[in-house]
């Protein structure tokens, strides 16, 4: 079985398609509540030339996890002015309508961020 990634095989993130098609709910058994999360669909097309099929998967992330990601990417790769999340709000991260209103902005962040970080 081939390793998912090695230092000698860089990923071409510009050939990946990242979308946030909808907001879903996650049942937090510890807090006993339903928390809205972004569904992130990923399609990897960068290995077709070497005989691999397109890979698809989905991950679910909470609102605040996007800001953790932004912080870590900035820490390790520097700031990218054209790839910024909207200002963080304390009120709203558990509100379905609020997340729905931010879906397109967060999707754009993931798409632009992948392209920006590929160039460096």
UniProtKB/TrEMBL annotation:
Pfam assignment, any one: PX
Top-level taxon of the source organism: Eukaryota
Location of the PX domain: 16-120
Protein name per UniProt: Sorting nexin-14
């Amino acid at each position: 079985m081939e390793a998912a990634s090695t230092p000698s095989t860089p990923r071409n993130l510009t050939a990946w398609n990242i979308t946030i098609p909808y907001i879903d709910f996650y049942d937090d058994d510890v807090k006993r509540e339903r928390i809205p999360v972004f569904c992130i669909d990923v399609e990897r097309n960068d290995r077709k030339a070497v005989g691999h099929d397109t890979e698809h998967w989905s991950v679910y992330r909470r609102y605040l996890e996007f800001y953790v990601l932004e912080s870590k990417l900035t820490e390790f790769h520097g700031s990218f002015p054209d790839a910024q999340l909207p200002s963080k709000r304390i009120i709203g991260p558990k509100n379905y309508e609020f997340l729905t209103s931010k879906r397109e902005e967060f999707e754009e962040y993931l798409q632009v961020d992948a392209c920006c970080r590929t160039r460096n």
